[in-house]
Design brief:
The complex is a heterodimer of chains A (about 650) and B (about 160). With about 650 residues, chain A is α+β, with helices and mostly antiparallel strands. Chain A is built from 21 helices and ten strands. By secondary structure, chain B is mainly α. Classes of the chains: A alpha+beta (about 650), B mainly alpha (about 160).
Chain lengths: ~650, ~160
């Protein structure tokens, strides 16, 4: 009964999405009498979809195997956590989550968008409704999670064991919050094109939503990468896999959008470019969805693919993005630019930022899809793997990182390169010192460049705050006072840029100084590795809630340090007949000791177990960095200027301000 | 019963989860390191975007052994890679070869950067034009008066 209610709510929500799309258009061009109703419709739609989602969750938690989706993806013995999160561990359920988040964003605009004009808000919700309608229709027609089975099976087929992991349980909600968050900026962009108006108020609305989406996407990608690191069992953190690229492309586009929207807000420039980026960023998330779910590109992470669904998603892309581009071509030339700037200015720096980010995004896009194009055109099959991306992405990214601190030093409109360089002399000198010392010390030029760039970014961020607080020119007391009064967005930007530097440290160290060794060990035997004395203590058979495990205990000692223990496992999930490896990882800020247990060596007379030891230097910074970046985004979001609804209230006439001084 | 069955499964049905096995490795560490380097450039053909160095598939294992056999027979890195490509085609290379069908792929990033930068330089002229036009606009006498008024007000109130 509850499941049927959920099903019914989903269908009703589909109808409401249609209503939400059409309603604001009724009436004449000058009067849209029903536009004000769009908001309530959006809220009701969200409530219905939330109810639908709750119904499916209920079916999962109570292990109702008469529901086909539950029977295919759950099992009565599955741990409770994964009964909850298993809801989105499959194609149908994850589509429902996608739609839920989509309708949540629409409801948020409906509720908090009080300072938007009724017609503009109506248009935004109409576009958001259209996106929702297409995805609801897709879900109801091709991916309905509510179909029943008769007779119901005794037990379910279980969830893919590699998805039974906390990291991956929370990876999709963050990722979708990011992907789908970009639908809202898309809706704002299209609504602006329909209304033919892009101004600072518009950009002030777009920025916080982009920030939310960007921060969520950052965390989502980091979680996915961390999961791959500890679950896939060979300690890699990024594989340039199509599915990973599918999440990276919208992230890169959103990063560009974030920076471009600043210029639109503060200087009313880059208008048509910002609108274009908003369309492209959401286009990239749709393409990502298509790549993951259609199966045109196979990947390690793909968990749900089906060609027919792929065609449907492709149609959605054509309708939404094609339509938006058509509108863009018609309207963008009419967007007036009200501001000019000189070659050396913040605007120009952000232009370079956007150019590089755009080229990087296109490169990833092109590299990911090139094999597909070539194959379709009969050019033979090729693989475009990590070596290609490393060699193309690397230099472009390095160039981008090099400009970041310079850009933050330049003033709007007109600046002088000399003064920017002057302000950065300390950061620059230290970075150069890092470069020289590292080249001399390690002889690894690429890695030294990486470390120097990391220092440059972090020190650049510190300099940025110091400069804004006038630590280098004013009195200390004055600077401290200024420090507490700096806008939060200034801190947000500095934190995010420093986080990028932290990420670069991890990436560089992992690329250059990773250690690996393979051994055959008897219980009680020990080896020397990376300064540790690693000993295989014992191996036991144990059982978990829904798996059986070969669990080993390793101890590792380093001179003058207490003994650490790690417990690498091999798990077998009998329900799915599938095995997973659980690496034993000891994480420190210097590096991770990463131990993988292999098979018993039956071929050799002496027996023993295959063991792989890795030392992953500073790998933790690869995820600390993005977390810092996302935090920077949140700090920036808390800036009162960006807080929803505040801009209108804060406008005071010049005379009042003068009187208050 | 369940435990016994499970134990049998674990022991008999060896779990493929380890990629390079100790038994595959060459005794000569230099040769082995070369084999690892080569393996990281070759794609496991039956897998989903994994190198043969990372993959647990049987075919990947066969290829790893093949690479090591060729190296042990004295082949150079290039000879080994050419040998594998001759058997399995360009698809096996994770870094696509530079040839007519991949020219576009390889020059794309540089091309995109050049075109983008060129476009910006072209647009820059527009921005500077807009600037000079804007700078030409002078304040009207009325506007000057209003501004002066505001400035006077603020001076008075701050006293």
């Amino acid at each position: 009964m509850i499941v049927e209610l959920g099903h019914y709510a989903l269908v009703l929500a589909t109808v409401l999405a249609l209503v939400q799309t059409v309603l604001p258009w009724l009436g004449t061009q000058h009067s849209r009498p029903y536009a004000y109703l769009t908001g309530p419709v959006a809220v009701v739609q969200f409530v219905l979809i939330a109810g639908s989602f709750a119904a499916l969750t209920y079916a999962y938690v109570t292990s109702d195997f008469s529901v086909a989706n539950v029977a295919s993806n759950s099992h009565s013995l599955k741990p409770d956590l994964y009964k909850w999160t298993g809801v989105w561990g499959n194609h149908e359920g994850s589509m429902l989550l996608w739609i839920l988040i989509l309708s949540l964003y629409a409801a948020l605009v409906a509720i908090f968008g009080t300072n938007l004009s009724t017609t503009f808000k109506g248009m935004v919700l109409s576009v958001q409704g259209a996106v929702g309608l297409l995805f609801l229709a897709f879900t109801v027609a091709t991916s309905n999670p509510f179909w029943r089975l008769d007779p119901a099976p005794v037990d379910g087929r279980g969830l893919n064991p590699i998805l039974q992991d906390p990291g991956l349980a929370f990876h999709p909600p963050f990722l979708y919050a990011g992907y789908v968050g970009l639908s809202l900026t898309f809706a704002f962009a299209v609504a602006a094109l329909i209304e033919g108006k892009v101004d600072a108020v518009w950009a002030r609305w777009v920025r916080p939503w982009t920030l939310v989406a960007w921060a969520a996407l950052t965390v989502g990608i980091a979680l996915g990468s961390y999961w791959a690191y500890y679950e896939l069992g060979w300690g890699g953190w990024w594989f340039w896999d199509p599915v990973e690229n599918a999440s990276l492309m919208p992230w890169l586009a959103a990063t560009a959008l974030l920076h471009s929207a600043i210029v639109t807000e503060k200087r009313e420039a880059f208008k048509s470019w910002t609108v274009l980026l908003a369309i492209v960023a959401f286009g990239m998330s749709l393409i990502g969805t298509f790549l993951v779910r259609s199966g045109v590109l196979t990947s390690v992470h793909a968990f749900a693919n089906d060609p027919e669904r792929g065609v449907f998603i492709l149609l959605i892309i054509v309708v939404l993005i094609g339509g938006a581009f058509w509108l863009y071509a018609a309207r963008a030339p009419h967007l007036r630019v009200n501001s000019a700037f000189s070659t050396i200015s913040r605007e120009s720096a952000l232009m370079v930022n956007n150019l590089l980010l755009a080229v990087i995004t296109l490169t990833v896009f092109f590299g990911t899809l090139y094999p597909l194009f070539l194959d379709v055109l009969g050019g033979g099959s090729i693989s475009v793997g990590p070596p290609y991306f490393n060699i193309t992405f690397g230099p472009l990214a390095a160039l981008l990182l090099l400009v970041v601190p310079l850009g933050t030093m330049l003033p709007w409109k007109r600046g002088a390169l000399e003064s920017a360089v002057q302000q950065l002399r300390f950061a620059g000198a230290v970075s150069l010192l890092v470069l020289v010392l590292s080249v001399v010390g390690t002889q690894h030029v690429l890695a030294s460049i990486g470390l120097a760039l990391a220092a440059w970014l972090v020190l650049g961020a510190v300099t940025d705050i110091g400069r804004r607080a006038r630590f280098f020119s004013g009195s200390l007391a004055d600077s401290m006072r200024r420090l507490t009064h700096l806008p939060r967005s200034a801190y947000g930007s500095a934190i995010a840029h420093a986080g990028l530097g932290v990420l670069v440290v991890g990436v560089t160290a992992m690329g250059a100084w990773r250690m690996e060794s393979i051994h055959v060990l008897q219980p009680g035997e020990q080896v020397e590795f990376a300064g540790y004395t690693v000993k295989l203590e014992n191996i036991q058979q144990t059982t978990g809630p829904n798996y059986i495990s070969t669990r080993s205990t390793f101890s590792a000692e380093r001179q003058g340090q207490s003994t650490i223990r790690v417990f690498p496992e091999k798990r077998l999930y009998p329900v799915q007949g599938q095995a997973t490896t659980e690496a034993g990882i000891h994480t420190t800020l210097v590096g991770d000791l990463y131990v993988v247990l292999g098979d018993p060596q039956t071929e050799q007379a002496a027996g023993g177990w295959a063991v792989k030891l890795y030392f992953n230097p500073m790998v933790i910074y690869i995820w600390i960095g993005p977390i810092i970046m996302a935090l920077g985004g949140l700090v920036s979001l808390s800036d009162r200027r960006l807080r929803i609804g505040v801009p209108a209230a804060r406008r005071r006439p010049v005379r009042d301000l003068a009187a208050a001084e | 019963m369940y435990r016994i069955l499970a134990f049998i499964l674990v022991v008999v049905w060896t779990i493929p989860a380890f990629a390079v096995e100790p038994s595959e490795m060459l005794d000569d560490p230099v040769l082995e390191e070369r084999a690892r380097q080569i393996s990281q450039k070759l794609r496991c053909l039956v897998c989903q975007n994994e190198t043969i160095d990372e993959s647990n598939a049987d075919l990947a294992r066969d290829l790893r052994v093949l690479v090591r056999e060729r190296l042990a027979a004295g082949a150079t890195d290039e000879e080994v890679i050419d040998y594998v490509v001759a058997r399995y085609g360009d698809f096996v290379l994770l870094s696509p070869p530079f040839k007519p069908s991949t020219f576009l792929l390889w020059i794309f990033p540089a091309l995109a950067l050049a075109v983008g930068a060129g476009l910006l330089v072209y647009l820059r002229k527009q921005f500077t034009n807009a600037e000079s036009e804007q700078n030409d606009v002078e304040l009207t006498a009325e506007e000057v008066q209003i501004l002066d008024g505001i400035l006077d007000d603020s001076k008075k109130s701050s006293r």
